Amino acid sequence: MRMINFAKRNFKELIRDPLSLVFEIALPLFLLFIFQQFDIPAENYRLENFTPSIILFGFSFITLFSATLISKDRTSSFLIRLGTSPMKSSDYILGYIISLLPIVLIQNILFFLTAIIMGLEFSISIIPTILVSMIISIFFISLGILIGSLVSEKGTGGLGSIIVQLVCFTSGMYFPKEVMGGVFEVICKALPFEACLNIIQGTLHNDFSNLTIIHIIVFLIYFIAVLLLSIIVFKKRMISDNKN
Question: Best label site of 25, 58, 151, 165, fewest CB within 10 Å?
């Protein structure tokens, strides 16, 4: 019950800044719209492929969102007061994750509605794609919690921007990794963003031919590692901040 109440409080904090919420949803929607106005002869930019890319792009802003929320809570007396409660670190992390999931759901629904209006063929596979993408969003939320636990509110903007760029250029959103080849291709394989995109696209298309066992292993390693690290680092930072 404490965790649910904590999640409700976090959600209220998020909607107190409607401008950031609008930006977080409107920018990916704008990119989805504007890129479809150009006749780009590449598979990446076909509506059925670019819509999953935009979903992933939106998740990078969710990372920035959660990082900012955590860093703000750290600089206020809120976490100091929570330090006296019987809640566990995992309860705090789950509270932050649950508060952001409704925003992820609304975001994904708006993305698909816009894509359908623009010509994407409606398919029942859209429903499992939304569900799968929400699971993937937990990784991005956890990453934001980890960043917010490590750096100050000023630092979250810089690291958040790096995550946005990594998603754009290493996931295959704009161009396949084979175009660059070499070291860049190795980096793309080592990071989880290409795997995330392939999972979302595969679910939407009912075609997992581009999804390899390596993709799944890489994603699971990052997912578990970042989630556990966010819990551990959050707890340590909470203790140290309370001492200060």
Answer: 165
DSSP state of 45: G
Domain ranges of the chain: 2-163+226-243
Q: How far is it, in rounded angstroms, from Cα 55 to Cα 104?
A: 9
Asked if residues 194 and 215 have their Cβ atoms less than 8 Å apart, the reply is: yes
Burial 129-150 (b: 16+ CB within 10 A, else e): bbebbeebbbbbbbbbbbbbbb
- Tokens (6 digits) for 26: 């409107």
pLDDT tens, residue by residue, 134-181: 999 999 999 999 999 888 878 888 888 899 999 998 988 887 777 777
Q: Model confidence over 209-230: pLDDT tens digits?
A: 888 898 899 999 999 999 999 9
- Only one residue has tokens 């390899």, namely 212
State both tokens at 144.
């934001």
User: Model pTM?
Assistant: 0.90
Strands, DSSP E only, in the chain? none
Assess contact for 151 and 157: CB atoms under 8 A.
no
Other CB atoms within 10 Å distance of the CB of residue 153: 16
In whole angstroms, give the CA distance from residue 20 to residue 3.
25
